[in-house]
Amino acid sequence: MMKAQQYIFSELTGLYAEPELQSVARLLLSTCTGLSFTGLLLNKNTTFSEYQWAQLKKMVELMKSGMPVQYATGETEFCGLRLEVAPGVLIPRPETEELVEWAVRSLPPDARVLDIGTGSGCMAVALQYLRPDCRVMACDVSPEALRQATRNARLHKMPVRFFQLDILTDGLPDESWDLIISNPPYIPHQESVSIEPRVKDFEPAVALFVDNDDPLLFYRRIAGLAKTHLAAGGQLMFETHRSFAADCVELLCSQGFSRVELRKDISGNDRMVRACID
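The structure assignment produced for this chain is given below.
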């Protein structure tokens, strides 16, 4: 195990800052061994098999090309759940976990939930797992994302219902929900020059970027649909760009939503918005 860790550091030093490299090494070692982070500490003297060495070297080579560690390992953790991820779906972020945690505390019993733009299915699967009393549905425009989301739901035996839908052009099914939640594309294309290559070159642009001239495009469309598809007392929750969070609040107020609330993420950035419909 120690030899494998030394190999990771020798190959990836310079590509990652020291604290991040420690985390990357743990992820790689955990993937190769199947051990938890605690298990890694308790099994420092474990010897890698030829297969494990080949697996590790393949992942390290992928990362040397710039690939994010989550794509190299094929998995990530979200809200305590192991999820599969691959190029073609957005890698779940810690900020999105905070949105899910807020939603879990806000949902009434037996709530009906719709996740718009589900990607890997991280929010839908986590919400269903953490609130098994609820009925969760999720949609995405990408068939590839829906396949990945379906695999993640099956991995944890979660009965999430997925369907394909282009939220900008299609209407929602003739149903009502107690919560509509979304982490839509919100980075203006002009900001791509400042985005890390590991994100810009590997993660799907359709899930990241929006036109410079209309950064609230998805929020406006989803809010308009939510007004007619939320049950009385229902909630609309968004993850937002920190620079446009206040604009999102203003948009929701102007559309007649009540009790609009903005929250910061763990880094102190305006990130999450909740609105209600009476």
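Interim note for the steering committee: DSSP finds twelve helices and eleven strands in the chain. The first helix runs from residue 2 to 12.
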